[in-house]
Amino acid sequence: MSLFSVLLISRLYHSINLKYPPILDPQLEALAADLYALSRYANADPKPSVLNSEASLLAGSEQVESKQNRAVTEKEHSELRLAQLQHQLPSNEPGALMQLVDKVAGEEVEEDHDTRECKNLFKNMKFFLSREVPRESLLFVIPAFGGTVSWEGKGAPFGESDDSITHQIVDREAQGHRFLSREYVQPQWVYDSVNTRVILPTEKYMVGKDSSTALVTFC
User: Measuring CA to CA, how many Å separate 119 from each of 103, 150, 156, 161?
Assistant: First the structure.
């Protein structure tokens, strides 16, 4: 992999508060919980310094360069990063190019309102995934929007009997004990809440209800 690719990937990882290179929990990875194994190692600092990490990646290659060439090389790296990312900017976002230039120059750019809102959508909510639901996508979506999540099986951070669980994601009627302190909802409730950026009422998403037409599906 080229140095420029490493720099670009590093920026993308840090944009979602993940360290690069990623550290995976081998036990969770073996249990097919790959996305959760990655997301649990998210940075504690919500605003990591992207350029500090990039500088550490550059250090190994720059040791073999002379002082005379070093300044030129760093300038070329910055220009190339700017060119690689510029085409991804939405055309209808005013000031987007200047924000990108500020990032490359090392200036901290504050998260926009939508980003902060998304990260806290499921804040203070604790989810448990029943065996029959699509685990991989929910293990990614719920933590990405601020929630805590667990599942049935080995490596789970907490069990189904945890009294602090607020929502249990199910796709069929519970056969055993039903906890009155939590809501039982279909997976579509999570996706629709994410799409609308609002915690939706759960009545239409209870087991047995047709939630397929409630809102658009998650994409």
Answer: 21, 18, 22, 27
* Amino acid residing at 133: V
Q: What is the pLDDT of residues 134-144, one digit of tens each?
A: 998 999 999 99
| The model scores a pTM over 0.85 | no
> Is the predicted pLDDT of residue 30 greater than 90, yes or no?
no
CB atoms inside a 10 Å sphere around CB 49: 12
- Cβ proximity of 191 and 217 under 8 Å: yes
Q: What is the pLDDT of residue 26?
A: 58
Residue corresponding to tokens 């609308």? 196
The arrangement of secondary structure in 116-205, i.e. its CATH architecture, is: 3-Layer(aba) Sandwich (3.40)
Domain ranges of the chain: 3-110, 116-205
* Per-position DSSP letters for 149-193, written without gaps between them: EEESSTT-SS-TT-TT--EEE-SS--SS---TTSEEE-HHHHHHH
Q: What angle do CA 9, 15, 19 make, to 5 degrees?
A: 65
